């Protein structure tokens, strides 16, 4: 049985196996090149190097205090010291420039759903490739845990473009799961808690269609790490159009049900149930204390990421004390 807590031996592929994998690696390379041109270059220009707004890491330690100076970040003002000395003081930090990010990847059957050209699995793969490449280009390390019907693959943290390609290849080569029963997202979160010891940025990439119980595990993980819940959604999961008689199939269990979507009462019930689940999920993520990046199969990836970074910037400013004091306004 696979044990994610036990260090796994690094497999050594034979020359024949390496040759067989070459076309798949080449396919991952072409996908990454496309993303570098169409997504990463756009993000480079929009973020302008401010990757820590998106990917806040660890290793930030208080080094010193000094008087406030022109152009200092007001978020770093130490208000206790300022009140005691009657002179504005700011905290000076030393930062560990190397961050480690972990991707907890839900690849259960429901991830293969999509009502249009894109599937949730494709959106997940593109996001992971983009974030992993952004991180590794700046000397940071990324690793991943992959969940299908259980946690079956651990990719140790590494850096460099080749490592990103290996991660993409590991996602792409996984076959689509047949019905495997209900997803237990809690298993993935518990595995990560036992494996990732150093404080890291953790991306939980899932549609969060799971058996209950993951909420507590997510909250515990967020107490130790910077956790971002990346929620994969499809519009059809929220609003069922009038399509006449159709067969709905549960991707997790394989159960099928014939329904009449022409019936407005049925569509209304569907919408109410979807709205209730949406509200419950948002409450659970909020209670866990994690930020949420929502990715729809119909959204532009860059726009979704930028909405998320803008939200973080606004909240960071509010958390820093809101408006700038009058004497600091004059100084600025």
The major beta sheet can be summarized as: 6 strands, mixed
Shape: globular
Show unreliable segments.
4-20, 57-62, 319-332
Secondary-structure-based class equals: alpha/beta
Number of strands: 10
Mean pLDDT: 80
Q: What is the N-to-C succession of helices and strands?
A: HHEHEEHEEHHEHEEEHEHH
* C-alpha end-to-end distance: 62 Å
Number of helices: 10
Radius of gyration: 23 Å
Quaternary assembly: single chain
Strand proportion, as a percent range, falls in: 15-25%
Main β-sheet, spatial strand arrangement: 5-4-3-6-7-10
Tell me the helix content.
40-55%
Folded structure, characterized:
Helices cover 44% and strands 20% of the residues. The strands form three sheets. Strands 5-4-3-6-7-10 form a six-stranded mixed β-sheet, sandwiched between helices. It has a two-stranded antiparallel sheet with strand order 1-2. The chain has a two-stranded antiparallel ribbon with strand order 8-9. Helix 7 (214-224) links the parallel strand 6 (201-206) and strand 7. Helix 1 (15-47) crosses helix 5 and helix 6 runs parallel beside helix 7. It has helices at residues 15-47, 51-54, 79-85, 120-136, 161-172, 185-195, 214-224, 264-288, 301-319, 326-331, and strands at 60-67, 89-95, 100-106, 141-147, 151-158, 201-206, 226-233, 245-249, 256-260, 291-296. The longest helix has 33 residues, at 15-47. The chain is an alpha/beta fold and 332 residues long.
Task: Describe the secondary structure blueprint for this structure.
Layout: H1 15-47, H2 51-54, E1 60-67, H3 79-85, E2 89-95, E3 100-106, H4 120-136, E4 141-147, E5 151-158, H5 161-172, H6 185-195, E6 201-206, H7 214-224, E7 226-233, E8 245-249, E9 256-260, H8 264-288, E10 291-296, H9 301-319, H10 326-331
Parallel strand pairs: 3-4, 3-6, 6-7, 7-10
Antiparallel strand pairs: 1-2, 4-5, 8-9
Helix pairs in contact: 1-4, 1-5, 4-5, 6-7, 7-8
């Amino acid at each position: 049985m696979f044990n994610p807590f036990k260090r796994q031996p690094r497999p050594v592929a034979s020359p024949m196996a390496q040759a067989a994998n070459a076309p798949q690696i080449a396919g991952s390379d072409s996908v990454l090149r496309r993303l570098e041109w169409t997504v990463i270059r756009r993000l480079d220009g929009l973020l302008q190097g401010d990757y820590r707004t998106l990917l806040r890491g660890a290793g930030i330690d208080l080094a010193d205090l000094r008087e406030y100076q022109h152009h200092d970040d007001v978020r770093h003002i130490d208000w206790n010291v300022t009140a005691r000395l009657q002179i504005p003081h700011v905290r000076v930090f030393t930062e560990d420039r190397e961050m480690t990010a972990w991707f907890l990847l839900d690849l259960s059957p429901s991830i293969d759903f999509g009502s249009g050209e894109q599937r949730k699995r494709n959106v997940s793969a593109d996001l992971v490739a983009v974030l992993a490449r952004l991180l590794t280009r700046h000397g940071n390390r990324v690793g991943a845990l992959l969940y299908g019907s259980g946690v079956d693959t651990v990719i140790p943290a590494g850096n460099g473009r080749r490592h990103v390609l290996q991660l993409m290849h590991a996602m792409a080569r996984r076959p689509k799961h047949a019905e495997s029963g209900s997803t237990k997202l809690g298993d993935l979160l518990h595995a990560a808690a036992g494996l990732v010891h150093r404080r890291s940025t953790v991306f939980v990439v899932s549609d969060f269609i799971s058996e209950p119980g993951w909420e507590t595990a997510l909250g515990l993980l967020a107490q130790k790490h910077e956790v971002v819940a990346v929620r994969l959604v499809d519009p059809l999961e929220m609003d069922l159009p009038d399509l006449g008689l159709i067969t709905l199939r549960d991707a997790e269990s394989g159960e099928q049900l014939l329904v009449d979507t022409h019936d407005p009462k049925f569509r209304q019930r569907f919408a109410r149930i979807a709205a209730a689940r949406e509200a419950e999920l948002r409450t659970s993520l909020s209670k866990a204390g994690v930020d949420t990046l929502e990715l729809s199969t119909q959204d532009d990836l860059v726009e979704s990421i930028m909405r998320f970074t803008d939200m973080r910037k606004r909240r960071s400013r509010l958390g820093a004390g809101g408006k700038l004091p009058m004497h600091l306004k004059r100084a600025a």
